[in-house]
Design goal:
The protein is an alpha+beta fold. It has two domains: about 70 residues; about 45 residues, no CATH class. It contains three helices and three strands. A three-stranded antiparallel sheet has the order 1-2-3. A hairpin with a 2-residue loop joins strand 2 and strand 3. The chain is rod-shaped. The N and C termini lie far apart (about 125 Å).
């Protein structure tokens, strides 16, 4: 008789655990945990994408600085143009030209 009672209690305890596992509260708690986990992963992914894009933007900004014509002028170079705005490849004696340097533009006359 005691074995039968003990087996019945064990069976009852197993059934209680099974019912608790199927409880809406447990399912809701598990669903909330999965949602929190997914939310955390999503936030990490967004932060990672932002960091990648920030690095890409900084890289492109550095490239723009290198290729910026005004940066070249700031290093001491000049852009020489004819009076009508054409970039000069070859200068003729007594030709009037326009020189663009880092802090402005002025006219010159070629000697030769």
């Amino acid at each position: 008789m005691t074995d039968r009672i003990r087996n019945a209690r064990l069976g009852l305890a197993a059934n209680v655990r099974a019912l608790q596992h199927l409880s809406p509260r447990v399912k809701l708690r598990n669903a909330r945990q999965r949602l929190d986990d997914a939310s955390g992963r999503m936030q990490d992914a967004v932060r990672h994408q932002l960091a990648l894009r920030r690095e890409r933007m900084l890289s492109l900004s550095a490239q723009l600085t290198v290729y910026n014509p005004l940066g070249v002028l700031a290093r001491g170079y000049a852009v020489v143009r004819t009076i009508d705005g054409q970039v000069v490849n070859q200068v003729q004696p007594d030709e009037r030209l326009s020189l663009r340097v880092s802090d402005g533009e002025f006219g010159v006359k070629a000697e030769g």
